[in-house]
Each structure stands twice: as structure tokens, then as C-alpha cells.
Design goal:
The chain is an alpha/beta fold. Helix content is 50%, strand content 11%. It has two domains: 142 residues, 3-Layer(aba) Sandwich (Rossmann fold), CATH 3.40.50.1000; 78 residues, DNA polymerase, domain 1, CATH 1.10.150. α1 crosses α2. The protein is elongated and about 60 Å long.
Amino acid sequence: MLKSIIFDLDNTLVNFWQFKQESAREASAAMVAAGLPMTEQGAYNLIFKIYEQKGVEYQLVFTDMIKPFNFPKAQFEKIRDAGIVAYLRKKGQVLKPYPGIPETLAELKKSYSLAVLTDAAREQAHQRLNFTGLAEYFEQVGTFHDTNIYKPGTEPFLSICKKLNVQPSECLMVGDNPGRDMKGAQAVGMKTCLAKYDPYFESAGPHPDFSIEQPADLLEVVRRIG
């Protein structure tokens, strides 16, 4: 019997890559305008090169990209802060739940316990949920800091089940990445559903039990599971 539905956060509930890319472009333009001796495209490429090296959640990306220029402190801070302000301003404009997510969660919450399981750090996960107005729908939130292990390691999946007081077989995992979300969930015995409505969803990895083209399709999936 299905008791709980567990959601990945980024690119499943909220448009993470869209906000990340658009915010990075705003930050690049602002830093160049503030005196960074690069092209806007060069600055943008460098931001994502640092993300590739240190992780997309890395919080000191603007500091790292400016340091090699050895600017005086005041100039360094001016350029860095221009990037931070532009990034956060654009994030506020762009970061949103996918259309249909709040309505779908509200309907599911009537019958199931809902949770988030993300590789994001605790602070970033809760910020995104609160910023987008989604926090109220979730009974539990599992983050990287609960186990210090990334998906598809089984520990995060078992940890969120413990928080929810359910067995893995009583859960449905919904995510956009088969190699992380589906693989880890299937390893502990959860049912799985691939969210395909984000243009950046991954296709490589274990075959999910179900897939959906829009959030509202999940209502039919849970009816089929029973």
C-alpha cells in the first residue's frame, strides 16, 4: 500500500537549471560592468567551470573567479558584490515551481505523507522550498547533510523512510534523474516515477516504473498504484 511520495527537489519541483543559468548570466554581466576584465561569455563559462570542479551548490564561486586577478580589496569587493546582488536578484525573478506542482502537491497531501529528498545542502534546500512557497506541503525534508552521502547511495533513501516512519516498499520516489533518483530508490525497494517535464531531465539510467509528462499526471500514477 502506498503511504508516502518522495520528491527530488531541483528540476523536479523547481526549475533549478533555468534559474542557475539565467542568474549566472546576470552575474557575469554585472561583474564585467563593475570592472572584471573578461567578456560576459568568458565570465559565464568560468562560473560553470568552477561549478564542474567544486559542485553546482558551491557558494564561493564569485570569490574564486576573481581571486586570480589580485585586485585591491575595495575593487575585489565591488566586483564580487556586483555579481552576488545580480545573481540573487535574478534568482528571485526566475526560481519557481513548475506549473501544476502546487496544485498536485495539495491534492496528494490529502492522502499521502510527502517528503523531499535532495542532494542539496540543508540550508539551500530549505531556502528554495520556502522561497517558492512549497515548504508547507512536505512533512519531511532529507538533504545531503543528513547522511553526507549523495544519491544513488542507499543511505539517503533509507534515512528519509526512517523520518517518515514508513517502509521503502510503501514509497514512490519522483525525480528527474534515473542514475540518481531511480537507481537509489529501486535499490531499497521503492517504486519510481521519472519526471520528464523539465527540458534538462536525464534519460540514462535504470528504467522507472512510471513516467510523467506533467506534474498532474502523478495523480493518475498514484491511482494506478492503489
